[in-house]
């Protein structure tokens, strides 16, 4: 059968389609998603669309035919009620050139990640503004309350005096300068 229009590169990849094979005796098939009414799905047996409520019924995830599809007959179901699945980019295939300018905001970044804005004070503005990277002073707490390890390949610095909380471990395998 010929097709008019843009080529379908992925067939039904964008909608939920399931395929089964008849064995001549089985009338019940288990679908991935529960269905509330038979009209929500399109059922084809041997590429012939079946009449909802007449040729089949549904109950949750169970599709039941009124007669068993014959041995080797292809059955496919299109779920018109499922969310449309869009193609996802392959892992590690998106880089910064593909992200719209301004699309990522501080609100979309994990709260535990700091852009450095709250660690600087000085001439360029207020604490908490990520644009403060040109400010003169870097500020840090006076008490360490989280376990920290400085690896052999790392250099670290802080302004003192610094107190390490009694329940906290500071491990220095690399270099640490307290100014």
Number of strands: 14
Query: How would you characterize the largest beta sheet?
Result: 4 strands, antiparallel
Ends apart, CA distance between termini: 78 Å
Question: How are helices and strands ordered from N to C?
Answer: EEEEEEEEEEEEEE
Number of helices: 0
Strand content: 25-35%
Shape: elongated
Query: Strands of the biggest beta sheet: in what spatial order?
Result: 1-6-3-4
**C-alpha-based Rg, rounded:** 31 Å
| Contiguous runs where pLDDT drops below 50 for at least 5 residues | none
Helix content: under 10%
What is the structure about, briefly put?
The protein is built from no helices and 14 strands. It has strands at 16-21, 28-35, 41-45, 48-49, 56-65, 74-79, 120-121, 137-138, 143-144, 148-150, 155-158, 163-164, 170-172, 175-178.
Name a few traits of the molecule.
179 residues; two-stranded antiparallel ribbon; 4-stranded antiparallel sheet; mainly beta
Description:
The protein has strands at 16-21, 28-35, 41-45, 48-49, 56-65, 74-79, 120-121, 137-138, 143-144, 148-150, 155-158, 163-164, 170-172, 175-178. Among the domains are: 16-79, no CATH class; 119-178, no CATH class. The termini are far apart. The chain has a four-stranded antiparallel sheet, with no helix packed on it. The chain has 179 residues and is mostly beta strands. The mean pLDDT is 79. The protein contains no helices and 14 strands.
């Amino acid at each position: 059968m010929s097709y008019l229009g843009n080529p379908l590169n992925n067939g039904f990849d964008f909608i939920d389609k399931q395929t089964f094979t008849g064995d001549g005796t089985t009338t019940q098939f288990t679908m991935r998603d529960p269905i509330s009414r038979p009209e929500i799905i399109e059922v084809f047996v041997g590429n012939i669309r079946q009449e909802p409520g007449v040729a089949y019924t549904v109950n949750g995830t169970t599709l039941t035919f009124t007669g068993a599809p014959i041995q080797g007959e292809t059955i496919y179901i299109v779920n018109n009620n499922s969310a449309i699945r869009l193609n996802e980019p392959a892992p590690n295939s998106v880089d910064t050139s593909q992200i719209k300018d301004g699309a990522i905001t501080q609100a979309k970044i994990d709260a535990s990640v700091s852009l450095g804005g709250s660690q600087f004070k000085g001439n360029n503005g207020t604490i908490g503004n990520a644009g403060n990277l040109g400010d003169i002073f870097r500020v840090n707490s006076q008490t360490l309350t989280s376990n920290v390890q400085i690896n052999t390949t790392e250099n670290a610095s802080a302004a003192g005096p610094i107190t390490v909380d009694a329940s906290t471990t500071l491990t220095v395998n690399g270099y640490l300068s307290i100014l």
